[in-house]
């Protein structure tokens, strides 16, 4: 997080273009199965290492070896072929405990937004029992590969480096949800982003956090380092409209002060379960769940065979 993003590959200096070409050769030599958007992946490694190819090379080679070991290239290929979050392994057991809405909705910086809400559905014991540690690791791979592939694809489409930004509604999440057992189960996943997915994340905005959590973060964040500038944890009083300082109203649901009445039609397929067979309002009795449900009655969803949308418009944005 926090590295300046180039406007386009065309803005790179001759030396930077040579470094990127060398990084591609290094990755291919190391067995990395590159695709049409992988140039943006490799650019992220060079950015992390301030364009020092020798330093980036070590991480590129270790990443290529790791990807071969865990099957990450195959996961990326399946996502490129159209695999959606609802089809990920164990997603049907994990999604009832947290609502994840992956989108391509842009922030002010052109990053992609994901909305998260776990209020009234997350309980430690139930979550720990829904999947094994191995399954948790695998689904984290799918999350990271999904973010990486679609970030790179968006980067290629817009000509500027795109990252993954998150908006987490922490209303109702308290000390009883803070568990060493959860952290331990996720322990193998924690270093993955730093080790193998550099420059993946944009901002991480947490709203409606418990007062103590927000105060604690305000005290420690100055000492955490440069990356902390992209992380914000706000209490309920400071949360209304907070996302509007980082994203246009057209990307922000009305429940968070924006003008987005419902998910755009092309974003619905990214939801963790098919809305025609899943009652989001009943499954997620929280802010984000109610907002989704209000815009996802099965009868109102456009039929792809017929085309067209409802009275809200294809974008889902309030006119």
TrEMBL record:
Gene Ontology CC annotations of this record: cytoplasm
Pfam families per UniProt: CRAL_TRIO (PF00650)
Record's protein name: CRAL-TRIO domain-containing protein
Residue stretches making up the CRAL-TRIO domain: 87-264
PANTHER family named in the record: SEC14 RELATED PROTEIN, SEC14-LIKE PROTEIN 2
Cited Gene3D superfamilies: CRAL-TRIO lipid binding domain (3.40.525.10)
